[in-house]
From TrEMBL:
Belongs to the cytochrome P450 family. Pfam families: p450. One of its GO terms (molecular function) is monooxygenase activity. This is Cytochrome P450. It comes from Kocuria soli. It comes from the Bacteria.
Length: 368
């Protein structure tokens, strides 16, 4: 299933492979150079924050130790266990959507789905949903504002939520749910409180905001490609649905960038980089590099899959990809089972540093 761009809708980006920001940060845009930096962790270290970030902020052996613990939570077996609960959450949300009236896809579908699916996966209480939805909203507003004090306050609020979830599970036997299993996991040695909070923060931060944003991107594109929506609704395989959704996310990558720091003087994409200099890997720009994808808006799930960097590449490649795929597949299928989305009006793009859309107005037309 391959088709041209249905209309002028995406943002134009820089054509330079590497640029220097006003603060002296090296920002990498080209596919080749982003790949090169992401797969060379000795030169481009992930130790960019003074805060503990497991596994994102670790390098080398320490990173590998925690990745082997974390990857066990996203195996095909673990995903198969979660699939029925994930489907039930998606079906419940889709069944309650009003048909034939304008809906805001990120706000009214993506956020509640992300929170409910994640709570079901981690075993978090349903009555926390409202606080988590409010948190996702506050987090997005803080990120948009660029104010450090606001971002810090939002992060502290999240840590309080995580602590309130961990405490009652202290005395349990580690079998109640995924959170319980993690708290008692000794595969990387006994985890400290700080380590547990950091791992959960990175899972939930990755999950909540990205799944909500991805749902918006997917509905934006499905509303503009009814033949693709129909194909999925008619029973496309899991692999076909994953390829279609990941191609939408390549065209409009909501997970824009990650940071690195150079460990030595080097060069990337023809640009000199000094040891200690901060570096940004811009996945969204790399995913629209015409040198690799030709017309970046042309839709070619099979042809573009091998170069798609939505989930990153290298040792830090997203461990949550199987979970994200499952959740996005289930929510897409559940929505298409009740209605086919049509644009209610133009979508509003997010502003940098965020990606995807702030508002995706769609109307669900009843099927049949
Ligand atoms: C749909 C959504 C998602 C997208 C687009 C996405 C994208 C990415 C990308 C690009 C990276 C690479 C970061 C880097 O190289 O510095 C990454 C890493 C990571 N992601 Fe995801 N992610 C998604 C969902 C999730 C989910 C559902 C989880 C967990 C529940 C998760 C957990 C993580 C973690 C822990 C890392 C750090 C891995 C490491 O440093 O070794 N992500 N993700």
């Amino acid at each position: 299933m391959k088709s041209p761009n249905p209309g002028p809708e995406t943002t134009s980006r820089t054509s330079a492979p590497v640029t220097l920001t006003a603060d002296g940060i090296v920002e990498i845009h080209s596919h080749e150079a982003v790949r090169e930096a992401a797969t060379d962790p000795r030169t481009f270290s992930s130790a960019v924050s003074r805060f503990l970030q497991i596994p994102n902020g670790l390098d080398g052996q320490e990173h590998a130790k925690f990745r082997s613990l974390i990857d066990r939570y996203f195996t095909p077996e673990a995903m198969a266990d979660f699939e029925p609960a994930c489907r039930a959450v998606a079906t419940d949300i889709a069944r309650n959507l009003p048909l034939g009236v304008p809906l805001k896809a990120v706000e009214q579908i993506g956020m509640p789905f992300a929170v409910a699916a994640q709570s079901a996966w981690l075993g978090w209480p349903a009555d926390l949903a409202e606080e988590l939805v409010d948190w996702v909203r506050a987090n997005q507003e803080a990120t948009r504002s660029g104010e450090l004090a606001r971002t810090a306050a939002v992060a502290e609020h999240f840590d309080r939520i995580i602590h309130s979830i961990i405490e009652p599970r202290r005395g349990s036997d580690g079998t109640a749910d995924v959170t319980d299993q993690l708290i008692h996991d000794d595969a990387a040695g006994e985890l400290t409180d700080q380590e547990i909070v950091s791992i959960l923060r990175n899972w939930t931060g990755g999950d909540l905001a990205s799944i909500a944003q991805c749902t918006g991107v997917i509905l934006h594109h499905l509303a503009r490609r009814p033949e693709v929506a129909e194909r999925i609704a008619q029973g496309a395989s899991d692999a076909e649905v994953d390829a279609i959704l990941e191609e939408f996310l390549r065209i409009d990558d909501p997970f824009v960038s990650n940071r690195r720091v150079a460990t030595a003087d080097t060069e990337i994409g023809g640009c000199p980089v000094a040891g200690g200099q901060k570096v940004i890997l811009n996945w969204a720009d790399a995913n629209r590099d015409p040198a690799v994808f030709g017309d970046p808006d042309a839709f070619d799930p099979d042809g573009n899959a091998q170069d798609n960097l939505v989930y990153g590449i290298g040792p830090h490649v997203c461990p949550g990809r199987p979970l994200a795929r499952l959740e996005l597949r289930e929510v897409t299928r559940a929505i298409l089972a009740v209605g086919i989305p049509e644009p209610a009006r133009d979508s509003e793009r997010e502003a940098a540093p965020m990606g995807g859309f702030r508002v995706v107005p769609v109307v669900l037309k009843p099927r049949g």
